[in-house]
Amino acid sequence: MDRAIPAASAIPAQHQELEELRLENQSLRTKLENLLDLAHRNQNIMARHQSFDLKIIGANSFRELIAHIFSALSISSDLDMVTLLLLDQRADLQRMLGDLKIDVRDFPHLTFIKHESELQKPPQPFCDPEQKPLLGKFHPEFHRALFASCAIKPSSVAIIPLWRQGRLIGCLNLGSFQADRFQTSMATDFIQRLGSIIAICLENVINNEKLNYIGLTDPLTNVSNRRYVEQRTLEEITRAQRQKYSLACMYLDIDFFKKINDQYGHQGGDDVLREVAKRIKAELRLSDTLGRFGGEEFVVLLVNTDLQNARLVAERIRKSIADFPFLLGESGICKTSVSIGLSTVAPGNSSGDVTMIARDMLIRADQALYRAKKTGRNQVCYN
User: Which residues contact residue 80 at a Cβ distance below 8 angstroms, ignoring those fewer than 6 apart?
Assistant: First the structure.
């Protein structure tokens, strides 16, 4: 039997059907490739965010955490700017960080504020721990203070309040030059989670720094204790050996301190100790170290300081204490002075065993202090 031959008009119809199938298949293949590409991009984004999470969770110090927030977060989230405002009402955190030799000026996009009102920005104040981050266009009236450290302002922003246990501790601010990067219609779950993690990590490292600070601080005067000064001295001598600079050590003793205790009581004596520590500290740089060695004795380590400059600092300290009376909390007013022994380690003399160099420097300063007290007190002697 002969097969029926398709009509000529049916052939174009079959070709058209095959072409439609081919185009549909190509469209499906393109969509699949796009989906795979999107999945790979999302996987890379999630991997970057996971890497960032691990970095900040593993941060052991305030300095390390803040560095990760400003560098790793910008990279992982492809941000043009990140700023952080922390609430520090009495400047306690800033003082502690300074005493721990953490210079907050290393982080220009970190700002400390005194009042929550500085974060209560319109159009929606941060008054509720459950409040979601604010996303949208940059408004100079509302957002300029949050990005004050940025020379060029963003086009869109995400403002993330940082809450811990019902308390507002700060605000994390993300900025982009893309006007549509952060929009009010966007979901905020991911950004809110980011804020929660950073708030927890901040609280954790600040508490760790506080524990470290307490362990290395004299509780009466709030300056370093002997253990910290000795540890710091070894570190600075090692650094001075590498970088070839001078160190100076001052040993200070309050003159006739027993008479102060006898006349004004131990409370009066404590007031004098606190004020002496405060006046000494006022004459020092952040890089210098002040510690109480016990009783009425203090030690100062001056970094990158030769004999001439060390004498100037010592004389300023002596005058700041001797020239101005001390107002005591309950016992009136008293005057006192300090005797100061000074020693230095020149760059050419800093090689050798670090422990022996530190011990010798402190012994020479102590001997100079003894001479200052023996020859009249209220003076600076060098050994």
Answer: 74, 154, 175, 176, 177
Residue 155 vs residue 190, higher pLDDT? 155
Residues 309 and 353 in one domain: yes
What's the first-to-final CA gap in the chain, in angstroms? 126
Domain at 197, CATH number: 3.30.450.40
C-alpha to C-alpha distance for 322 and 312, rounded to whole angstroms = 15
Alpha helices in 178-286 (DSSP H): 189-215, 226-243, 257-282
Residue 381: pLDDT over 70:
yes
Q: Which of 214, 237, 268 is the last residue of a domain?
A: 214
Find the helix packing angle between 10-57 and 62-76, rounded to 10°.
170
Write down the catalytic residue from 296, 297, 315, 330.
296
Containing structural domain, residue 144: 46-214
Q: Is residue 205 part of a domain?
A: yes
Kindly state the average pLDDT of the residues 140-149: 90
232 and 191 in a single domain? The answer is no
Q: What is the pLDDT of residue 128?
A: 59
**CA 263 to the chain's CA centroid:** 43
Least-confidence region, from 19-28, 52-61, 210-219, 222-231: 19-28
153 is a domain residue: yes
| Higher pLDDT, residue 380 or 49 | 380
Are 228 and 357 in a shared domain? yes
Whether 366 and 247 map to the same domain: the answer is: yes
Residue 221 contacts residue 277 (beta carbons within 8 Å): yes
Decide: 136 and 160 in contact? Cβ < 8 Å. no
Active site residue 20: no
Q: Are 52 and 78 in contact (CB under 8 A)?
A: no
Residue 377 has what DSSP assignment? S
